[in-house]
Structure formats: structure tokens, C-alpha cells
Amino acid sequence: MVKKLKFSSCGHLRSDLVKDLNFGKMKHCHTWVFHSFNGVLVIGPLLLLFLVAIGSGYFYNAYSFPEPIVHENENRTSNLSGKCNFFDGNWVPDESYPLYNASECPFAEQGFSCLANGREDKEYLKWRWKPRNCEIPRFDVHEILEKLRGKRVVFVGDSLSRTQWESMICIMMTGVEDKKSVYEVKGRKITRQIRHLQVRFSSFNFTVEFYRSIFLVQPGAPPKRSPKRIKKALMLDKMDDISKEWIQSDILIFNTGHWWTPTKLFELQGLVLPD
């Protein structure tokens, strides 16, 4: 069984500044070494703030957490070391949230809209993610729109990635005057069956895309004499066949970590097999 995977695709990304963030630790981007299948490629703290907030919000809506305790003397600028662990923090109430209205966004799936499905209270929308030892800037949609001019942003993963992709589009649309200038390139509706979706912000000449690839690697035929319930094996040394389509992205955000668990996979004859 392959314990670590090394891919040298990072050199093909067009961005001048690409960082590989692994739980707050940065590395030079020459070779990708995956100790776990979690990763984020981003440019700038504002976009990272969006991803942390949206990703964490997915779980916040699904589970109940006790109200966090925030101390008044908490450092609101930055910690003394000059480093910030964006993943270590709490949800704090913020009356200025939410940053967009999902019911008014044509790219938000109704199935993921609590209000559209009958939820009456709105307090769950008024929470902001705050790192424990530092303060991160508020999401400035106009600044991000300008920074993304001429860029290609790509999300890769499962339904979690797709809802993050939808949320980013919706929040970016709040800064666009002509809403019709934002459209899915092929006029497709957002569904889980479509493997690739591409939304273009024509006024700013950039696209935000989604590719469905839950394991990021290629599936293959199961080994001989494997149980009948096994339909495929995962080829850990080969990237998904559609990976060649997202290589030329400027910003790449992907997730797959929660799929690599003993309840979903097991090892047989040196191969990792989906259960």
C-alpha cells in the first residue's frame, strides 16, 4: 500500500504565488507530498478566510456547538510571533452577517438552503469565524473581484467542495452590478450529476469552476478473487483522469480527506479499495 504520494503537477499551475497550506504550515511548491489528503492552494488571507468560514459553516449547520467564550482582552491584531493558525479559533456572533442572501442567488442549490426548506430562525447565519490569537481582515468583495481579474479559480472534491464553490459565487455576486454578467458557461443547472461546472464573471474576466473528484485519484479494476461487493480499486499513484483539466488553474482548492477512512476504504492485496 502506498503510504505517501508525490505529485509534481504543482509546477504547471500558472499562479506566480502558490502556497501549499497544511494546517498552518507552508512549504515551497515544487513537489506535493500528501501525508493526508487535505489541501488548499490559495492566494491571500481574504480568500482563505472565506474558505475556512464556509467549510467550517458546513459542519456548524449540521451539528450543535456550545456558545464560545470570547475574552475582552483577546489580541485583536496579531500574535507576537507574527504567525496565525486560521484553523484554531471559535465562532463568534456577528450581527453584520450573513454576507449574502442565498435565496437571491441563482447558483445556490435549494437543497442546501435551510431557509428555503422551512427553517424559520435566522440566528444561525450570524456567526463569524475568529482565530484564537489573531485577527483576520473582513472579506472585501470588491478587493477580491479586482485581485481575481483574468484568473481561473478551481474547486475540486465532493458536495462539500460544490457548496463552497456555490457560496463563493454568491458572495462575489454581491459586488457585481450587472448580475446577468455572471453565468454558467454552458447554461447548465447545478446538479450533483454534472462533473464539471464553470461560472464566468464576464465583467472581471475570471471563472470559478468545480470538478467532482471525491478521491482525486483514478479508479481501477478490483484484484482477482476479491469479494463480489468490490467494484473498483483506487490507483494511488495516478491522478484522476480529469486532473489535466484543472492543472492550468491560478487558484486550486481541493478536499478529499473525509473520504479516506476505514469505514469507506480497506486494503486488500496491497490495494486500497472503496467499500
TrEMBL record:
Protein's recorded name: Uncharacterized protein
Single GO MF annotation: O-acetyltransferase activity
Keyword Ribosomal protein: no
Domain (Trichome birefringence-like N-terminal) ranges: 83-135
Pfam name, any one: PMR5N
Family assignment from sequence similarity: Belongs to the PC-esterase family. TBL subfamily.
Taxonomic source organism: Solanum tuberosum
Residues in the signal sequence: none
Membrane topology: Single-pass membrane protein
InterPro entries xrefs: TBL, TBL_C, TBL_N
Keywords: Membrane, Signal-anchor, Transmembrane, Transmembrane helix
Ranges annotated as spanning the membrane: 32-60
Compartment list: Membrane
Domain of life: Eukaryota
Principal subcellular localization: membrane
Trichome birefringence-like C-terminal domain span: 136-267
One annotated Gene Ontology cellular component of this protein: membrane
